[in-house]
Amino acid sequence: LKLSDLKGVFNKHDLFVVSIHKQSNGYYTVKLDASGIQWRPGEHGIFSLPDRSFSGRKWRAFSIASIPNENEMLLGTSIGIKPSGFKQVLASLEKGDIIRLRGPFGWFVLQDDATPIVMIAGGIGITPVRALLKSVEKTQNRNIHVVHSSKGGHLFGDELVKLSNQNNKIDLHLTNDRAMTQAIIADLVFEYGNKAFYYISGPPKMIKDYRKILKSKSIKNKRIVTDPFVGY
Ligand SMILES: Cc1cc2nc3c(=O)[nH]c(=O)nc-3n(C[C@H](O)[C@H](O)[C@H](O)COP(=O)(O)OP(=O)(O)OC[C@H]3O[C@@H](n4cnc5c(N)ncnc54)[C@H](O)[C@@H]3O)c2cc1C
Q1: pTM of the full structure
Q2: Quick one: pLDDT at residue 83?
């Protein structure tokens, strides 16, 4: 984490909702008009809902699942059967409503443009990984592996399958079984060791577990970049 990774936190933008879609398995995607806003793929923002009253904490951190070239800021979240006040309001927003953003900023960004990439996402942790993958989807100079482990369906799954089918440097594993996920990671660590960067995103507990596995196989800290979704 560098001080410059946090610089964007002082920026404030009011963004118009373009659309909100309920996907399967309780996932929601939110598209925001992001004309004129720049961010590094993998960054996140602090989002609030101005002029709305609801109980509980008034802001949430969300990773940005899109890249600036897509022109829209794409968010993905999970909204269960007993949603927080924030998420109840979020799910009810309509086209043209405003969401306030502090940021974007963050540290979950690509470390260089040549080293092999292993991305490991748990559940909703796929959001910043989609952005990283979109930013390298045409790459031909390094191997890219994405392991998305999720019990409740794979958000962006169809799109990521298509994307990996279009580039033989991109290898996608969609899993819903912990043992299988660990076996895939073990194979990747065997293949690349400290020659790759490992990007892990999702619930803090999951990150802790996978970091432990990588460390036990002698992967150095400086090769591991994490995005803990505090709050899950
Ligand atoms: C960098 C980052 C990126 C994230 N990206 C995404 C994303 O792309 N999509 C997404 O859905 N979520 C993301 N999150 C998590 C998100 O900010 C919310 O915490 C999460 O969605 C749960 O919100 P909620 O309203 O459902 O539950 P909440 O009502 O906020 O909380 C659920 C439980 O977690 C506890 N909790 C909440 N916040 C904290 C905290 N800061 N520290 C300790 N305990 C806490 C609460 O007390 C409660 O028990 C991200 C978090 C971080 C830090």
Answers
A1: 0.95
A2: 96
